[in-house]
């Protein structure tokens, strides 16, 4: 798992931008499916990057910060999973499992930045009282710089020290097959846990019918050999059609309810 200095620097730059985007730009550049693909392009394996990004996206889809509590960071986790998958030739699920400690480092970096910036809010309040927008902007730029730098350093250390770790794991993968099997099982399970957390938060009672309908259609479509590959795309079109139909129906009902008067709706 040997990466050139140029590749490491480019990944650091991407990490720096993504760290800021997660809390400031909000352009979804930090999302694993985007970020891991970009890192894959930099490291010369965009297909692996996309596969890792898609897997990590399912893991993180239900993870969200609540107040000061931060989940394991998807930026560093997704990047390091891509690094391990490409650099050591690991299966995607194993690479995702191995990247969990690095995601925790990202979580600590976010908490550390928030802790450091907490007293700086008093400085921002003074700038606001003095009608000094430049001072407020400087406080925000400081937070961006600290978080971006911490993330970039963690990824750089991971890529450099991770080379030895990745090579050792790849060389001993047969000897430690039970460890790799555990990582593979954990990485494969995490995507379902992430999606389950999202469903627990968002799904309402009247949506369970659509859930079971989609599940049944997925089983039926994937069982047909010629439809197994594009099954997800086909179900996406079906789901979009149902969503549009349901939206239009509810819109018509709402317009009739809001019409008022004695009109019969004609």
Explain this structure:
This protein has helices spanning 5-25, 32-42, 46-60, 74-88, 92-98, 100-117, 120-129, 133-171, 177-202, 208-222, 231-257. It is mostly helical and 266 residues long. Helix 2 (32-42) runs antiparallel to helix 3, helix 3 (46-60) packs across helix 5 (92-98) and helix 4 (74-88) runs antiparallel to helix 6 (100-117).
What does the secondary structure layout of this molecule look like, with pairings?
Elements: H1 5-25, H2 32-42, H3 46-60, H4 74-88, H5 92-98, H6 100-117, H7 120-129, H8 133-171, H9 177-202, H10 208-222, H11 231-257
Helix pairs in contact: 1-2, 1-8, 2-3, 2-4, 3-4, 3-5, 3-9, 4-5, 4-6, 4-8, 5-9, 6-8, 7-8, 10-11
Based on Cα principal axes, name the global outline.
flat
Radius of gyration: 23 Å
Q: How many β-strand runs? A: 0
- Strand coverage percent: under 5%
**Into which percent range does the helicity of residues fall?**
over 70%
SSE-based structural type: mainly alpha
Summed up, the helix count is: 11
What string gives the helices and strands in order?
A: HHHHHHHHHHH
How many angstroms does the end-to-end distance come to? 71 Å
Can you tell me the residue ranges where pLDDT is under 50 for at least 5 consecutive residues? none
Overall mean pLDDT stands at 79
Largest sheet: none
Write a concise synopsis of the structure shown.
The chain is mainly α. The protein has helices spanning 5-25, 32-42, 46-60, 74-88, 92-98, 100-117, 120-129, 133-171, 177-202, 208-222, 231-257.
Features:
single chain, mainly alpha, 266 residues, flat, 11 helices
């Amino acid at each position: 798992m040997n990466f050139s200095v140029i590749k490491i620097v480019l990944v650091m730059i991407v990490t720096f931008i993504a760290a800021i985007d997660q809390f400031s730009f909000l352009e979804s550049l930090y999302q694993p499916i985007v970020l891991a693909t970009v890192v894959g392009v930099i490291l010369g394996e965009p297909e692996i990057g996309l596969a890792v990004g898609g897997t990590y996206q399912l893991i993180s889809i239900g993870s969200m910060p609540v107040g000061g509590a931060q989940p394991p960071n998807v930026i560093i986790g997704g990047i390091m999973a891509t690094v391990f998958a490409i650099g050591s030739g690991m299966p995607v699920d194993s690479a995702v499992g191995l990247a969990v400690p690095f995601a925790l480092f990202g979580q600590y970096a976010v908490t550390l930045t928030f802790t450091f910036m907490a007293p700086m809010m008093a400085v921002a309040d003074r700038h606001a009282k003095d009608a000094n927008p430049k001072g407020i902007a400087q406080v925000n730029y400081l937070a961006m710089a600290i978080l971006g730098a911490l993330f970039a350093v963690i990824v750089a250390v991971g890529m450099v020290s991770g080379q030895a770790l990745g090579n050792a794991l790849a060389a001993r993968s047969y000897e430690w097959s039970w460890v790799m099997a555990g990582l593979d099982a954990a990485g494969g399970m995490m995507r379902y846990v992430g999606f389950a957390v999202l469903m627990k938060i968002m799904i309402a009672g009247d949506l369970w019918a659509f859930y079971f309908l989609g599940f049944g259609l997925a089983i039926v479509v994937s069982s047909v050999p010629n439809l197994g590959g594009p099954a997800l795309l086909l179900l996406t079109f079906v789901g979009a059609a149902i969503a549009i139909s349901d939206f239009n129906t509810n819109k018509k009902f709402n317009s009739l309810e809001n019409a008022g008067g004695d009109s019969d709706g004609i």
